[in-house]
Amino acid sequence: LTALKDPDPTVRVSAIHALSKDASAEVTLKLLGLFRDPESCVRLAAAEVLAKRIDPALAPEFLPMLADPNFEVRLSAVQFLGRICHPQIAEALLPLLADSDSDVRRAVAQALGTMGEPASIEGLVLALTDEERAVRQAAETALGRIDANWVASEAAQRASSQLEASLNDPRGWVRSAVAQVLAKLHAQTSGIQAVG
Question: I need a surface site. Which of 21, 73, 134, 138 has the fewest CB within 10 A?
Answer without folding.
Answer: 21
